[in-house]
Amino acid sequence: MNSASSDSIFIPVLTIDGPSGSGKGTISRLVAQRLGWHYLDSGALYRAVGVAAGWAGLDLADPAALVRCAFDTRIGFREQAGELRVLVNEVDATDELRTETAGAAASAIAAIPEVRAALKDRQRAFRQLPGLVADGRDMGTVIFPDAPFKVFLTASAEERAERRYKQLKDKGVSVTLDGLLREILARDARDAQRAVAPLRPAIDAVRIDTTGLGIDAVVEQVLALLPAH
């Protein structure tokens, strides 16, 4: 679906972009629930391709192989016990998608223009009535530039590392805070400096710094940007 088509132009979209650990995933899901809208986790698509590439033993430095993988990988979403599960080639890969390895692969893959092009239509197809909340890094700048509502979430790198550290420790994953901070800073640099769709706020996006803010407070700030609901 083309986001500029006559069929989609009347379907509202709220884009929520931001760096890793800014809270955009949690906030986006909660806002979508409050609005009764569909939800797109665009990062999951890139992570899914990264996981599929890993399963196939592909070299992340081989763009041609990764583009084929992006086209061939079957990606599905399923609600289970109130949680969004991600299926990669019919296999539930939700837990693997959340690892730092999958995140690093996604960041590398996202820098390849042909991969981004391959996934663009998949993302735009989520634009369905009654509306869509789209979470990612280029939702407001590239995928849905005509979205009437745009938010860019930020937070200090230190706080984002602490959030990720707590999240992973709660899941029993062995990580260090210093290691996570280095990975977040490195990913920020890659995402901001890539030639295609670099991480940056859309000109018309509202910036919200989530440092020190609770989830509920951020959700309310985002909802306040929309007409009465």
Structure, described:
The protein is an alpha/beta fold and 229 residues long. The chain contains 10 helices and 8 strands. A 5-stranded parallel beta sheet has the order 2-6-1-7-8. β4 and β5 form a beta hairpin. The relative contact order is 0.22. Mean pLDDT is 90; it is low at 1-6.
Spell out the key features of this protein.
single chain; 229 residues; alpha/beta; 5-stranded parallel sheet; 8 strands; globular
SSE diagram, text form:
Layout: E1 13-17, H1 24-35, E2 38-41, H2 42-55, H3 63-72, E3 75-80, E4 83-88, E5 91-92, H4 94-97, H5 100-110, H6 113-124, E6 132-136, H7 139-143, E7 149-154, H8 157-170, H9 177-193, E8 206-209, H10 215-223
Parallel strand pairs: 1-6, 1-7, 2-6, 7-8
Antiparallel strand pairs: 3-4, 4-5
Helix pairs in contact: 1-10, 2-5, 3-6, 5-9, 8-9
Q: How many strands appear in the DSSP assignment?
A: 8
CA(first)-CA(last) distance: 26 Å
Query: Treating each run of at least 4 consecutive H or I residues as one helix, how many helices?
Result: 10
Shape: globular
**Widest sheet, order of strands:** 2-6-1-7-8
Order of helices and strands: EHEHHEEEHHHEHEHHEH
Summarize model confidence as the mean pLDDT.
90
Computed structural class: alpha/beta
